[in-house]
């Protein structure tokens, strides 16, 4: 069964779409970053595990938390066990990323990885820097995934139908890439929401770059997505009553301060992770390579208020060059 990306399927939960796309999921090796219990990454892999993927690679910094997710997976797929492998990956550290990529590339028993879902990330944290000295949200949400994805690209391109999914956000509307000052003058001009917006813009531009560089020649499909507004541990450190008024782009949507919490268009984790399943497996997305997805469909630039700075091929190439400079390695395809 197939679907029209411009007319998303009904019953939009991760589990229902996993059943819909069972033929596309069966036999696939899927690597997902950020799979702590109760997070969207965990919801995604738990949903697709029942559709017989050949392998689920669970990557994250905290191995103990990954083990908790594994226990849930094992319990829920006891009738049809799925192969699982754990990868220790601290996406905020470029050295750790290289070590993890070396581990993946050294798995001789895994000839290819069909789908990579880059889900790990942080949101609106106070100013700090990565081990290499880069602003932490830019480092964790973009530079780490950029390096990791490119370092394991050989495994990905060995798949007959490779696909990469970058989890972005409508938060991209908060800030373009600050090419003049991506590090916020060492914290002097730091605004945590602008930094978050910059990193989410970077996710979208990376999907654009991958589609342009590897789409026609290597059949790679690459997408970014907005899962929706969901209360997960990602924002557990935030006081949403004061956070949203700081976000001018969302003020217009929320209407007024008194209605902040009652007006939030909250959806469930199952509904949010549905767009992950859609992005990773929908068979009819090939004509929309590089697109930004939301609500299990291709986003409408006007209805979904996409900012041109996050969809520009010129900005995408400019970011690619900056990213290569910052990670200290070029990737020519």
Structure description:
- This protein has helices spanning 14-20, 22-25, 40-48, 63-76, 94-105, 136-151, 153-157, 192-218, 240-243, 248-254, 260-263, 269-281, 313-327, and strands at 29-33, 55-60, 84-88, 115-118, 163-167, 221-226, 292-294, 297-298.
- It has 333 residues and is α/β, with parallel strands linked by helices.
- The protein has one domain: Rossmann fold, CATH 3.40.50.
- A hairpin with a 2-residue loop joins strand 7 and strand 8 (297-298).
- Helix 3 (40-48) packs across helix 12 (269-281), helix 6 packs parallel to helix 8 and helix 8 packs across helix 13 (313-327).
- The protein is globular and about 55 Å long.
- It starts with 13 loop residues before the first helix and ends in a 6-residue tail after the last helix.
- Residues 244-263 have low confidence and may be disordered.
> What is the CA-based Rg, rounded?
19 Å
- Secondary structure: helix percent: 40-55%
Report the principal-axis shape.
globular
- Give the C-level CATH assignment: Alpha Beta
Give the class from helix and strand content and strand pairing: alpha/beta
Read across the widest sheet, the strand sequence of neighbours is: 3-2-1-4-5-6-7-8
Distance between the termini: 34 Å
Count the strands?
A: 8
* Oligomerization state: single chain
Going by CATH, the architecture would be 3-Layer(aba) Sandwich
Write a compact overview of the structure shown.
With 333 residues, this protein is α/β, with parallel strands linked by helices.
Give the SSE layout.
Layout: H1 14-20, H2 22-25, E1 29-33, H3 40-48, E2 55-60, H4 63-76, E3 84-88, H5 94-105, E4 115-118, H6 136-151, H7 153-157, E5 163-167, H8 192-218, E6 221-226, H9 240-243, H10 248-254, H11 260-263, H12 269-281, E7 292-294, E8 297-298, H13 313-327
Parallel strand pairs: 1-2, 1-4, 2-3, 4-5, 5-6, 6-7
Antiparallel strand pairs: 7-8
Helix pairs in contact: 1-3, 1-12, 3-12, 5-6, 6-8, 8-13
């Amino acid at each position: 069964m197939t679907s029209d990306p411009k007319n998303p399927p009904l019953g939009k939960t991760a589990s229902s779409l996993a059943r819909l796309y069972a033929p596309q999921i069966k036999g696939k090796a899927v690597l997902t970053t950020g799979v702590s219990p109760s997070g969207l990454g965990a919801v995604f892999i738990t949903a697709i595990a029942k559709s017989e993927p050949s392998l689920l690679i669970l990557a994250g910094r905290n191995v103990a938390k990954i083990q908790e997710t594994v226990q849930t997976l094992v319990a829920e797929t006891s009738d049809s066990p799925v192969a699982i492998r754990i990868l220790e990956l601290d996406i905020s550290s470029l050295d750790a990323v290289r070590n993890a990529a070396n581990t993946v590339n050294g798995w001789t028993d895994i000839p290819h990885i069909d789908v990579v879902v880059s889900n790990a990330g942080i949101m609106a944290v106070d100013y700090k820097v990565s081990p290499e000295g880069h602003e932490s949200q830019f480092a964790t949400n973009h530079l780490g995934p950029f390096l990791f994805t490119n370092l394991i690209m050989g495994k990905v391109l060995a798949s007959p139908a490779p696909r990469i999914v970058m989890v972005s956000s409508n938060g991209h509307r908060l800030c373009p890439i600050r090419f003049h000052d991506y590090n916020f003058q060492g914290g002097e001009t730091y605004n945590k929401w602008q930094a978050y917006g910059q990193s989410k813009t970077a996710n979208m531009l990376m999907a654009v770059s991958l589609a342009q560089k590897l789409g026609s020649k290597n059949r790679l499909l690459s997408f970014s997505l907005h899962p929706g507004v969901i209360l997960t541990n990602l924002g557990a450190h935030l006081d949403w009553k004061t956070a949203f008024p700081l976000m001018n782009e969302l003020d217009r949507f929320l209407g007024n301060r008194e209605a902040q919490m009652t007006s939030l268009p909250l959806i469930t984790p199952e509904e949010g992770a549905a767009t992950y399943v859609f992005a990773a497996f929908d068979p009819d997305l090939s004509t929309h390579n590089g697109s930004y997805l939301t609500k299990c469909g291709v986003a409408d630039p006007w209805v979904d208020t996409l900012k041109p700075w996050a969809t520009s091929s010129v900005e995408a190439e400019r970011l690619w060059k900056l990213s290569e400079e910052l990670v200290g390695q070029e990737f020519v395809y």
